[in-house]
Amino acid sequence: MSERVGMFVAGVQKAGTTSLDAYLRQHPALAPPSVKETHFFDDEALTWEDPPYERLHAFYPPARAGVMRFEATPISSFWPPALARIRRYNPAARIILLLRDPIERAWSHWSMEVHRGTESLSFSDAITVGRARLKGAPLGPAWRDQSYVERGFYLGQVRRALLLFPDTQLLFLESRALASDPAGTLSRIAAFAGIDAFPPVTPLRERANPLPHRAPEPRDVAHLRELYARDARAAVALAGIDAAHWPTLAAG
Questions:
Q1: Rg (the chain; Cα; Å)
Q2: CB count in 10 Å sphere of residue 102
Q3: Which of these, 21, 205, 202, 20, lies nearest to 108 by C-alpha position?
Q4: Domain boundaries, the chain
Q5: Quick one: which of 7, 206, 9, 11 has its CA closest to 112?
Q6: Mind giving me the DSSP string for 41-89?
Q7: Confidence (pLDDT) at 1
Q8: SS3 9
Protein backbone atom coordinates (compact mmCIF):
# COMPACT_ATOMS: atom_id res chain seq x y z
CA MET A 1 0.00 0.00 0.00
CA SER A 2 1.45 3.39 -1.00
CA GLU A 3 0.35 6.97 -0.66
CA ARG A 4 2.20 7.87 -3.84
CA VAL A 5 0.06 8.84 -6.82
CA GLY A 6 0.66 6.15 -9.43
CA MET A 7 -0.88 7.55 -12.61
CA PHE A 8 -0.99 11.05 -14.07
CA VAL A 9 -3.05 12.44 -16.95
CA ALA A 10 -0.39 15.01 -17.76
CA GLY A 11 -1.78 16.66 -20.87
CA VAL A 12 -2.88 18.27 -22.96
CA GLN A 13 -5.38 20.93 -22.01
CA LYS A 14 -8.62 21.00 -24.07
CA ALA A 15 -8.04 17.46 -25.39
CA GLY A 16 -10.64 15.58 -23.37
CA THR A 17 -8.85 15.33 -20.04
CA THR A 18 -11.98 16.30 -18.09
CA SER A 19 -13.94 13.48 -19.69
CA LEU A 20 -11.05 11.08 -19.10
CA ASP A 21 -10.87 12.10 -15.46
CA ALA A 22 -14.61 11.38 -15.13
CA TYR A 23 -14.16 7.93 -16.70
CA LEU A 24 -11.22 7.08 -14.45
CA ARG A 25 -13.26 7.98 -11.38
CA GLN A 26 -15.67 5.16 -12.26
CA HIS A 27 -13.06 2.41 -11.85
CA PRO A 28 -13.00 0.79 -8.39
CA ALA A 29 -9.23 0.20 -8.55
CA LEU A 30 -8.48 3.90 -9.09
CA ALA A 31 -8.60 6.53 -6.34
CA PRO A 32 -9.23 10.10 -7.51
CA PRO A 33 -8.32 13.30 -5.70
CA SER A 34 -11.06 15.52 -4.31
CA VAL A 35 -10.51 17.94 -7.21
CA LYS A 36 -9.73 17.17 -10.84
CA GLU A 37 -6.61 19.33 -11.11
CA THR A 38 -4.39 19.39 -8.05
CA HIS A 39 -1.88 21.77 -9.70
CA PHE A 40 0.75 20.53 -7.28
CA PHE A 41 3.65 19.91 -9.66
CA ASP A 42 3.22 23.23 -11.48
CA ASP A 43 3.10 25.29 -8.28
CA GLU A 44 6.11 27.61 -8.35
CA ALA A 45 5.38 28.87 -4.83
CA LEU A 46 6.43 25.53 -3.30
CA THR A 47 9.92 24.78 -2.04
CA TRP A 48 11.04 22.20 -4.59
CA GLU A 49 14.27 21.42 -2.75
CA ASP A 50 12.05 19.75 -0.13
CA PRO A 51 8.56 19.36 -1.64
CA PRO A 52 5.61 19.16 0.78
CA TYR A 53 4.12 15.99 -0.68
CA GLU A 54 1.67 15.82 2.20
CA ARG A 55 -0.24 18.67 0.48
CA LEU A 56 -0.75 16.46 -2.57
CA HIS A 57 -1.71 13.44 -0.49
CA ALA A 58 -4.29 15.52 1.42
CA PHE A 59 -6.45 15.52 -1.74
CA TYR A 60 -6.95 11.74 -1.39
CA PRO A 61 -8.85 9.39 0.91
CA PRO A 62 -6.76 6.99 2.99
CA ALA A 63 -4.64 4.67 0.85
CA ARG A 64 -6.03 1.18 0.27
CA ALA A 65 -4.32 -1.99 -0.88
CA GLY A 66 -4.84 -2.71 -4.57
CA VAL A 67 -6.07 0.82 -5.34
CA MET A 68 -3.97 3.25 -7.38
CA ARG A 69 -4.17 6.98 -6.84
CA PHE A 70 -4.36 9.09 -10.00
CA GLU A 71 -4.70 12.73 -10.91
CA ALA A 72 -5.31 14.83 -14.05
CA THR A 73 -3.62 18.23 -14.33
CA PRO A 74 -3.25 18.79 -18.09
CA ILE A 75 -0.77 21.64 -17.81
CA SER A 76 1.82 19.14 -16.55
CA SER A 77 3.23 18.18 -19.96
CA PHE A 78 3.49 21.87 -20.99
CA TRP A 79 4.84 23.32 -17.73
CA PRO A 80 8.60 22.81 -18.17
CA PRO A 81 9.57 21.58 -14.66
CA ALA A 82 6.43 19.54 -13.92
CA LEU A 83 7.23 16.16 -15.46
CA ALA A 84 10.70 16.10 -13.91
CA ARG A 85 9.11 16.85 -10.54
CA ILE A 86 6.68 13.97 -11.05
CA ARG A 87 9.57 11.65 -11.89
CA ARG A 88 11.42 12.68 -8.74
CA TYR A 89 8.26 12.07 -6.72
CA ASN A 90 7.48 8.69 -8.28
CA PRO A 91 9.92 7.26 -10.83
CA ALA A 92 7.48 4.38 -11.46
CA ALA A 93 4.56 6.69 -12.29
CA ARG A 94 2.45 5.97 -15.36
CA ILE A 95 1.91 9.01 -17.58
CA ILE A 96 -0.98 9.52 -20.02
CA LEU A 97 -0.87 12.24 -22.68
CA LEU A 98 -3.96 12.99 -24.75
CA LEU A 99 -3.10 14.94 -27.91
CA ARG A 100 -5.53 16.99 -30.00
CA ASP A 101 -5.10 18.88 -33.25
CA PRO A 102 -3.23 21.99 -32.07
CA ILE A 103 -5.36 24.41 -34.12
CA GLU A 104 -8.56 23.02 -32.63
CA ARG A 105 -6.91 23.03 -29.19
CA ALA A 106 -5.88 26.68 -29.48
CA TRP A 107 -9.38 27.75 -30.56
CA SER A 108 -10.99 25.82 -27.71
CA HIS A 109 -8.53 27.31 -25.20
CA TRP A 110 -9.19 30.86 -26.41
CA SER A 111 -12.96 30.26 -26.36
CA MET A 112 -12.74 29.10 -22.75
CA GLU A 113 -10.84 32.20 -21.66
CA VAL A 114 -13.29 34.48 -23.48
CA HIS A 115 -16.17 32.70 -21.78
CA ARG A 116 -14.46 33.13 -18.42
CA GLY A 117 -14.00 36.86 -19.07
CA THR A 118 -10.20 36.65 -18.86
CA GLU A 119 -9.50 37.36 -22.55
CA SER A 120 -10.40 40.54 -24.44
CA LEU A 121 -8.35 40.01 -27.59
CA SER A 122 -9.82 38.52 -30.75
CA PHE A 123 -8.55 35.07 -31.63
CA SER A 124 -6.58 36.56 -34.52
CA ASP A 125 -4.82 39.02 -32.23
CA ALA A 126 -4.37 36.49 -29.43
CA ILE A 127 -2.41 34.09 -31.67
CA THR A 128 -0.26 36.83 -33.21
CA VAL A 129 0.54 40.02 -31.29
CA GLY A 130 -0.91 38.47 -28.12
CA ARG A 131 1.95 36.01 -27.92
CA ALA A 132 4.16 38.86 -26.69
CA ARG A 133 2.40 38.51 -23.34
CA LEU A 134 4.38 35.35 -22.67
CA LYS A 135 7.76 37.01 -23.18
CA GLY A 136 9.77 38.26 -20.24
CA ALA A 137 7.66 36.42 -17.66
CA PRO A 138 8.61 32.73 -17.77
CA LEU A 139 6.11 30.59 -15.89
CA GLY A 140 4.00 33.64 -15.11
CA PRO A 141 0.19 33.97 -15.32
CA ALA A 142 0.20 34.41 -19.12
CA TRP A 143 1.81 30.96 -19.45
CA ARG A 144 -1.32 29.52 -17.90
CA ASP A 145 -4.05 31.60 -19.47
CA GLN A 146 -2.83 32.98 -22.80
CA SER A 147 -0.56 30.16 -24.02
CA TYR A 148 -2.93 29.36 -26.91
CA VAL A 149 -0.18 28.85 -29.47
CA GLU A 150 2.65 27.65 -27.25
CA ARG A 151 0.76 24.72 -25.75
CA GLY A 152 0.21 23.31 -29.22
CA PHE A 153 3.87 22.64 -29.91
CA TYR A 154 3.75 19.00 -28.86
CA LEU A 155 7.12 17.73 -30.02
CA GLY A 156 9.00 19.17 -27.06
CA GLN A 157 6.39 17.83 -24.64
CA VAL A 158 6.54 14.32 -26.12
CA ARG A 159 10.33 14.35 -26.13
CA ARG A 160 10.47 15.51 -22.51
CA ALA A 161 8.17 12.67 -21.45
CA LEU A 162 10.27 10.12 -23.35
CA LEU A 163 13.49 11.43 -21.82
CA LEU A 164 12.14 11.21 -18.29
CA PHE A 165 10.15 7.96 -18.38
CA PRO A 166 10.58 4.57 -20.10
CA ASP A 167 8.19 3.71 -22.93
CA THR A 168 6.37 1.21 -20.73
CA GLN A 169 5.27 4.03 -18.41
CA LEU A 170 3.93 6.29 -21.18
CA LEU A 171 0.63 6.11 -23.01
CA PHE A 172 -0.03 8.56 -25.84
CA LEU A 173 -3.65 8.84 -26.95
CA GLU A 174 -5.52 10.91 -29.55
CA SER A 175 -8.45 12.92 -28.23
CA ARG A 176 -10.94 12.04 -30.95
CA ALA A 177 -10.38 8.33 -30.27
CA LEU A 178 -11.48 8.88 -26.67
CA ALA A 179 -14.60 10.70 -27.87
CA SER A 180 -15.53 8.20 -30.59
CA ASP A 181 -14.52 4.97 -28.86
CA PRO A 182 -14.36 5.49 -25.09
CA ALA A 183 -14.67 1.77 -24.34
CA GLY A 184 -11.76 0.91 -26.60
CA THR A 185 -9.63 3.72 -25.19
CA LEU A 186 -10.43 2.73 -21.62
CA SER A 187 -9.49 -0.85 -22.42
CA ARG A 188 -6.04 0.39 -23.48
CA ILE A 189 -5.77 2.41 -20.28
CA ALA A 190 -6.73 -0.58 -18.12
CA ALA A 191 -4.02 -2.69 -19.74
CA PHE A 192 -1.53 0.15 -19.35
CA ALA A 193 -2.38 0.63 -15.67
CA GLY A 194 -2.43 -3.09 -14.93
CA ILE A 195 -6.01 -3.04 -13.61
CA ASP A 196 -9.17 -4.96 -14.45
CA ALA A 197 -11.38 -3.82 -17.32
CA PHE A 198 -13.51 -0.75 -16.79
CA PRO A 199 -17.18 -1.26 -15.99
CA PRO A 200 -19.58 -0.28 -18.81
CA VAL A 201 -19.49 3.50 -19.24
CA THR A 202 -21.86 6.05 -20.71
CA PRO A 203 -20.10 8.21 -23.33
CA LEU A 204 -19.20 11.60 -21.90
CA ARG A 205 -18.26 14.94 -23.31
CA GLU A 206 -17.31 17.20 -20.48
CA ARG A 207 -16.64 20.92 -20.97
CA ALA A 208 -17.66 21.29 -24.61
CA ASN A 209 -16.64 24.53 -26.33
CA PRO A 210 -18.64 27.36 -24.70
CA LEU A 211 -18.78 29.24 -28.04
CA PRO A 212 -20.18 26.48 -30.31
CA HIS A 213 -21.54 28.81 -32.99
CA ARG A 214 -18.23 30.50 -33.73
CA ALA A 215 -15.21 29.27 -35.68
CA PRO A 216 -11.74 30.61 -36.44
CA GLU A 217 -11.21 32.63 -39.59
CA PRO A 218 -9.57 30.74 -42.50
CA ARG A 219 -6.59 33.10 -42.36
CA ASP A 220 -6.04 32.20 -38.70
CA VAL A 221 -6.25 28.50 -39.49
CA ALA A 222 -3.70 28.97 -42.28
CA HIS A 223 -1.41 30.96 -39.96
CA LEU A 224 -1.47 28.27 -37.28
CA ARG A 225 -1.05 25.46 -39.80
CA GLU A 226 2.14 27.13 -41.00
CA LEU A 227 3.40 27.40 -37.43
CA TYR A 228 2.47 23.90 -36.35
CA ALA A 229 2.67 21.50 -39.31
CA ARG A 230 6.28 20.41 -39.00
CA ASP A 231 6.18 20.12 -35.21
CA ALA A 232 2.87 18.23 -35.25
CA ARG A 233 4.02 15.79 -37.90
CA ALA A 234 7.13 14.92 -35.88
CA ALA A 235 5.24 14.77 -32.59
CA VAL A 236 2.57 12.32 -33.74
CA ALA A 237 5.21 10.12 -35.37
CA LEU A 238 7.20 10.02 -32.13
CA ALA A 239 4.08 9.43 -30.05
CA GLY A 240 2.81 6.75 -32.43
CA ILE A 241 -0.74 8.07 -32.75
CA ASP A 242 -3.03 8.35 -35.77
CA ALA A 243 -3.62 12.04 -36.48
CA ALA A 244 -4.38 11.87 -40.21
CA HIS A 245 -7.63 13.77 -39.62
CA TRP A 246 -5.98 16.78 -37.95
CA PRO A 247 -6.60 20.06 -39.82
CA THR A 248 -3.01 21.01 -38.98
CA LEU A 249 -1.76 18.17 -41.17
CA ALA A 250 -4.22 18.76 -44.03
CA ALA A 251 -2.90 20.07 -47.33
CA GLY A 252 -3.25 23.78 -47.85
A1: 18
A2: 30
A3: 205
A4: 5-249
A5: 206
A6: TT-TTS-TTS--HHHHHTTSPPP-TT-EEEEE-TTTTTSTTHHHHHHHH
A7: 47
A8: strand
Span 5-249 CATH architecture:
3-Layer(aba) Sandwich (3.40)
Burial of residue 202 (CB within 10 Å: 0-12, 13-18, 19+) is exposed
Which residues have CB under 8 Å from 72's CB, separation 6+? 8, 9, 17, 18, 20, 21, 24, 36, 37
Main-chain phi, psi angles of 209, to 5 degrees = -55, 125
On whether the CB atoms of residues 154 and 101 are closer than 8 A, the answer is no
According to DSSP, the residues that pair with 71 across neighbouring strands are: 8
* pTM exceeds 0.85, yes or no: yes
Q: Who contacts 236 (Cβ-Cβ below 8 Å, separation ≥6)?
A: 99, 154, 242, 243, 246, 249
Below-70 pLDDT ranges, the chain = 1, 205-210, 212-213, 252
* pLDDT score of 136: 77
- For 8, which DSSP code? E
For residue range 155-206, list pLDDT tens digits in order: 999 999 999 999 999 999 999 999 999 999 999 999 999 999 999 988 886 6
DSSP of 144-159, one letter per residue?
HHS-TTGGG-HHHHHH
pLDDT number for residue 204 = 80
